[in-house]
C-alpha cells in the first residue's frame, strides 16, 4: 500500500476515469438529452480520449503536472460548460499538488478542495443548483473528514466516492439554477444531473489510489 501520490498513480486514476467515461458515454448523453442538449457524454469522452492520448505520448514525472496537463487538454478539446469546468477542476487540483514528484496522500484532500473552489469561482453554482458541484462538494467534505480522522487513503477515497454518488442522486429532485438545464425551469425536476454523474465517476475511478 502506498500512502504517497505519485505521477504514475495520478495517471492511473485519470486513465480509469477515461475508461468509466467511455463506458458511460451513452448514459451521460441520455441524461443530458433530458435536461440539456445531449452532448455531455460526447464532450467528456472526446476530452478524456485526448487526455489518454497525451498521457501515452508523454507522461509527466510530477503528480501535479499529470493533473494540470489533464486540465489543459480538457479546456482545449471540450467546448460547452463541462470543458472549462472539468478543466478548471483538474488544473486547480494539479496546481495544489505542486511540483514534487510524489506528494503525501493528505494532499489529495487539499487538491480536491482547491478544484471545487475553482469550479465554484468559474461557474458560480451553489449547492442545490443541480450541477456537478452537488457531487463535488460532498466528496471534498467527505475526503477531508476521512483524512483528518486518519483513515488510510483508500478508505478515505471510498468515503468520498460514496458521498459523490449520494450527491449525484440528490440532484434528481432539484430545480436547475445554472447551465442549460436551468432554461427548463420546473421541467428540470426529476432528472439526474449529467455533470454530477461524471463527478461520481471521477471519484469511483480513484478507488485504486492508496492500494
Ligand atoms: P453544455 O451544458 O454546455 O452542453 P455539458 O452538457 O457537457 O455542457 O455539461 C453540462 C453539465 O455542466 C451540467 O450537467 C452541470 O453539471 C454542469 N454545469 C453547467 N453549468 C454549470 C455551472 N455554472 N457550474 C457548475 N456546473 C455547471
Ligand atoms: Mg450538454
Description:
The chain starts with a strand and ends in a 6-residue tail after the last helix. Strands 1-2 form a two-stranded antiparallel ribbon. The chain has one domain: DhaL domain (Serine Threonine Protein Phosphatase 5, Tetratricopeptide repeat). By secondary structure, the protein is mainly alpha-helical. The chain contains nine helices and two strands; from the N terminus they run βαααααβαααα. The model has no long low-confidence stretch (mean pLDDT 97). Helix 5 runs antiparallel to helix 6 (107-123). The radius of gyration is 16 Å and the shape is globular. The chain is 66% helix and 2% strand. Bound molecules: adenosine-5'-diphosphate and magnesium ion (MG). Residues 32, 36-37, 39-40, 80, 180 line the site of magnesium ion.
Summary tags:
211 residues; mainly alpha; Serine Threonine Protein Phosphatase 5, Tetratricopeptide repeat; two-stranded antiparallel sheet; 2 strands; globular; binds magnesium ion
Task: Give the SSE map.
Elements: E1 4-5, H1 7-23, H2 25-35, H3 40-57, H4 63-77, H5 82-97, E2 103-104, H6 107-123, H7 133-148, H8 153-170, H9 194-205
Antiparallel strand pairs: 1-2
The protein binds adenosine-5'-diphosphate and magnesium ion.
CATH architecture: Alpha Horseshoe
Order of helical and strand elements? EHHHHHEHHHH
At the fourth level of CATH, the homologous superfamily is: DhaL domain
Shape: globular
Attached small molecules: adenosine-5'-diphosphate, magnesium ion
> For this structure, what is the CATH class?
Mainly Alpha
The CATH topology comes to: Serine Threonine Protein Phosphatase 5, Tetratricopeptide repeat
Please give the count of helices.
Answer: 9
Question: What is the number of strand segments?
Answer: 2
End-to-end span in angstroms?
5 Å
Question: Total domains, how many?
Answer: 1
Main sheet record: 2 strands, antiparallel
Secondary-structure-based class equals mainly alpha
Unreliable residue runs: none
Sequence of strands across the biggest β-sheet: 1-2
Amino acid at each position: 500500500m502506498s500512502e504517497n501520490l505519485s505521477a504514475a498513480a495520478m495517471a492511473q486514476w485519470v486513465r480509469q476515469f477515461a475508461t468509466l467515461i467511455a463506458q458511460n458515454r451513452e448514459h451521460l448523453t441520455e441524461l443530458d438529452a433530458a435536461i440539456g442538449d445531449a452532448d455531455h457524454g460526447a464532450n467528456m469522452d472526446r476530452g478524456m480520449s485526448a487526455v489518454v492520448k497525451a498521457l501515452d505520448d508523454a507522461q509527466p514525472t510530477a503528480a501535479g503536472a499529470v493533473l494540470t496537463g489533464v486540465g489543459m487538454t480538457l479546456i482545449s478539446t471540450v467546448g460547452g460548460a463541462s470543458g472549462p469546468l472539468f478543466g478548471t477542476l483538474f488544473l486547480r487540483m494539479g496546481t495544489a499538488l505542486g511540483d514534487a514528484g510524489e506528494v503525501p496522500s493528505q494532499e489529495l484532500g487539499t487538491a480536491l478542495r482547491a478544484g471545487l473552489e475553482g469550479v465554484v469561482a468559474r461557474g458560480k453554482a451553489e449547492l442545490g443548483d443541480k450541477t456537478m458541484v452537488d457531487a463535488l462538494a460532498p466528496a471534498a467534505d467527505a475526503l477531508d473528514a476521512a483524512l483528518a480522522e486518519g483513515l488510510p487513503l483508500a478508505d478515505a477515497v471510498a468515503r468520498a466516492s460514496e458521498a459523490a454518488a449520494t450527491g449525484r442522486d440528490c440532484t434528481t429532485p432539484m430545480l436547475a439554477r445554472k447551465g442549460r438545464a436551468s432554461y427548463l425551469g420546473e421541467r428540470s425536476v426529476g432528472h439526474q444531473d449529467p455533470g454530477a454523474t461524471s463527478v461520481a465517476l471521477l471519484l469511483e475511478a480513484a478507488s485504486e489510489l492508496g492500494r
